[in-house]
Amino acid sequence: PMSDKLPISFKESAERMLSFAETTVYWYGSYYCVHCERSGGRCAFSSQRDRQFCMRGPHGSRIKVIAATSSVAAFVLLLLTVATVLYLSLKTRYNAEIHMKVEMFLKTYGTSKPTRYTFSEVKKMARRFKEKLGQGGFGSVYKGELPNGVPVAVKMLENSTGEGESFINEVATIGLIHHANIVRLLGFCSEGMRRALIYEFMPNESLEKYIFSDDSNIFQNLLVPEKLLDIALGIARGMEYLHQGCNQRILHFDIKPHNILLDYNFNPKISDFGLAKLCARDQSIVTLTAARGTMGYIAPELYSRNFGGVSYKSDVYSFGMLVLEMVSGRRNSDPRIGSQDDVYLPEWIYEKVINGEELALTLETTQEEKDKVRQLAVVALWCIQWNPRNRPSMTKVVNMLTGRLQSLQMPPKPFVSYENEPMP
Fold first, then answer.
1. Do residues 255 and 199 make contact, with C-beta atoms less than 8 angstroms apart?
2. What's residue 287's pLDDT?
3. What are phi and psi of 271, to 5 degrees?
4. CATH 3.30.200.20 domain extents, the chain
5. Is 371 a catalytic residue?
6. Mean pLDDT in the chain?
7. Is pLDDT of 26 > 90?
8. Which CATH number does 205-424 carry?
9. How many CB atoms neighbour CB 227 within 10 A?
10. For 193-234, what is each residue's pLDDT tens digit?
């Protein structure tokens, strides 16, 4: 009985080993099966045909992957479509609100000068915007010409947040005023979302081009002490008119060399009223939701109310910084930024004046001219006092520049030392 069972057991074991070997060779050694499964099928073996074959069907792994990928792609595409439609809808609604706001303003503004032009007229006036004069904070400026041949500068307002406010500010503030030291607005265009402002052409560009020039001849022949005084006085008179001479007080909030344009005789004119704000003549403090202006020219109270309230004295501070740049030929920098090796411009000038040292632009001049530049610097140092109450009004600045320079007293330090400087 034992011998009868042994052959059977041995036979079964041999068959099982052979079957395992065949299966192992097939599943792990067959390139055909690997290719079959990668293509989405299922590999099988036929004992009748003694070979493997590929079973294809609708439930293959590849079909599942493709279906899943297609579903995700369709979902993402749907989200993008919904987001795009929502964005375009909100943008259209926003543009419509701005357009309505501007048109309501223009209806209230009336039909008096400056002249309103169509966009096609502006395009013809600017010769299809071929000659670009520069880039401002609210748009590009092109050279143009009125039908009567008068040269003009055409500012095309860019599509940006607050565009309607910028346009209204410009038209409302300088549209009806005329002063020798304020650039004149000759016309405007508001057609849909395309808006333009047409100014008198200023051939000598901005003051910034000259006071920061690397050409020493400019300082020797153009920005001589007498001319520096004339330019500072012209700017001061223009600002005095904005603060005291209009029916409503106009606060500019962006007085800087780039916004002071020069005419044929290098007389200064204040430009770019995109950040301006109208207020009552007797309104001493102005409420702002955020600081406005250019870094380096912004008064301390615009950073922090700890220094005082925002008023027309904030423009006085900007004027003082501008004049310090004029007399030094250097750009001012905010004391909170830059490397520790940088010298804060007001501090540098204050030390020069206190010690009787010459400023950069007073070299190779007479003693009388040096004294004029020194006194001009003293006026500027009064204007940048950190406490607004210690700054003079622009009327007083004009008086100091026209006849009382010799009696000026040295102001206290107009800056706070780094150790004691309060942070906003």
1. no
2. 76
3. -135, 180
4. 104-201
5. no
6. 78
7. no
8. 1.10.510.10
9. 14
10. 788 999 999 999 999 999 888 776 776 667 788 899 999 999
Its sign, for the CA torsion 195, 198, 203, 207, is negative
351-370 per-residue burial string, b: 16 or more CB within 10 A, e: under 16: ebbeeeeebebbeebeeebb
The active-site residue, picked from 4, 214, 230, 254, is 254
Contact 171, 163 (CB under 8 A): no
Cis peptide before 114 (omega within 30 of 0): yes
Q: Does domain 104-201 have CATH number 3.40.50.2300?
A: no
Residue 206 carries which DSSP code?
B
Residues in the chain: 424
Q: Look up residue 408 and give its two tokens.
A: 């000026």
Q: Is 309 helix (H, G, I), strand (E, B) or coil?
A: coil
Answer yes or no: is 267 a known binding residue.
no
Q: CA–CA distance from 118 to each of 37, 121, 157, 197 (Å)?
A: 69, 5, 15, 12
- Whole-structure pTM value: 0.71
Q: How far apart are the first and last CA of the chain?
A: 105
Residue 352 annotated in ligand binding: no
Any known ligand binding at 64?
no
